[in-house]
Design brief:
The protein has about 350 residues and is α/β, with parallel strands linked by helices. The protein contains ten helices and 18 strands. The chain is globular, with a radius of gyration of 21 Å.
Length: about 350
């Protein structure tokens, strides 16, 4: 197929006439809020106004807008240049271009809350982010984060790389984004994430290792201070599921998203816990029914831990060697339970 010659041929699509009505039907059933993206790169106010009107017709349970999609890349000429490193002058030029376009297009959003600036690589704007937040009056600071890129470093994007501490703990590198957002009194989220940008890599992004990575990544993000992680779908190998005709094809990543929603109900509090040698332990509090302890074994060999328990405990685990969420019941003996955590796996205990 070759590399698309322009941003338009790579990422510009026409919405079918039934798009907004179908989205309305979906949202009516799911009863979920929706965030609609306003891509500022073309700077068309009339197009932005059409998007806002369509979004209002579809929304049923809350609506906000994402203002700008990866504006730190706007200055690049085309899709093939994604691996190009920008100079400081080019980064400043991209900031100024985004501020000019976003300020102009913001009038289309009116009183709706906005998320932004949706940076592809937030470190490029580290010096300017506080100024961007102040000028645009965002409601939520959103950034994108992928531990690897098929466009920039495909050789590093392996199963071993995905299971590395670097990939699982990548959100910690953006702790400064959380600090900048809090200084402005705003929450921060990772509004787009997945294993490997530019569509993922088959044989890596669609393996059980991706589920283990996703659990680690979300836990790291939440403990860093991000309020939410949103996973990107694009019809590629990193999607948690795909649809072929009338058939739903599930991939291992779906197991991680399902598990995380069970383990971490809205309102949960997380903290790193001690007393689990060889494991990274996270204690979960604040909501009934969620996980009590999440144990992450970053090593290749299994680790065993003994915990106090007066009643039976359900253990659920994600493994890098098999798909799906495995479950077993652990019965206490003499007031304790013995938990074996397999290598390269994440296990949660639930009452």
């Amino acid at each position: 197929m070759g590399t698309p010659a322009s941003w338009e041929t790579a990422a510009l699509y026409s919405l079918p006439s039934s798009f907004w009505s179908q989205l309305h039907c979906l949202l009516s059933s799911a009863k979920e809020p929706v965030t609609v993206g306003i891509n500022a790169e073309r700077g068309s106010l009339s197009w932005a106004q059409q998007m806002v009107a369509g979004a209002q017709s579809a929304a049923t349970n809350g609506l906000d807008f994402s203002l700008g999609n990866e504006p730190d890349l706007y200055i690049l000429p085309n899709y093939a240049s994604l691996g190009q490193k920008l100079s400081l002058e080019e980064d400043v030029a991209a900031v100024n271009l985004y501020l000019r376009l976003a300020t102009y297009l913001r009038q289309a959003i009116g009183g709706f809350a906005s998320v932004g600036p949706e940076l592809a690589s937030a470190k490029h704007w580290q010096r300017q982010l506080r100024g961007v937040i102040a000028q645009l009056h965002e409601g939520v600071v959103g950034v994108h984060l992928y531990p690897f890129s098929r466009c920039k470093d495909p050789r590093a994007a392996t199963i071993a790389g995905l299971l590395s501490a670097r990939a699982g703990d990548a959100p910690r590198s953006l702790a400064w984004v959380v600090a900048d957002a809090r200084a402005a009194g705003l929450p921060a989220i990772i509004s787009e994430a997945n294993s490997i940008s530019c569509g993922g890599i088959a044989g890596v992004s669609d393996t059980p290792a991706a589920a283990v990575w996703a659990a680690r990544f979300v836990l790291s993000a939440l403990k860093t201070g991000f309020g939410e992680v949103r996973f990107h779908l694009s019809g590629a190998s990193y999607d948690p599921f795909s649809v072929r005709g009338g058939e739903l094809l599930r991939r291992p990543l779906e197991s991680a998203l399902f598990a995380l929603n069970r383990w971490l109900p809205v309102g949960s509090s997380l903290r790193t816990a001690s007393g689990a040698p060889g494991l990274l332990a996270t204690a979960v509090t604040g909501t009934p029914g969620g996980a009590r302890m999440i144990l992450d074994n970053e090593r290749a060999g299994a680790q065993t831990i003994v915990l106090p328990a007066a009643h039976a405990v359900v253990a659920e685990s994600l493994s890098a060697t098999r798909p799906g969420l495995a479950m077993l019941t652990l019965n206490p003996s003499a007031g304790h339970i013995r938990i074996r955590v397999a290598g390269n796996s994440v296990l949660a205990t639930r009452p």
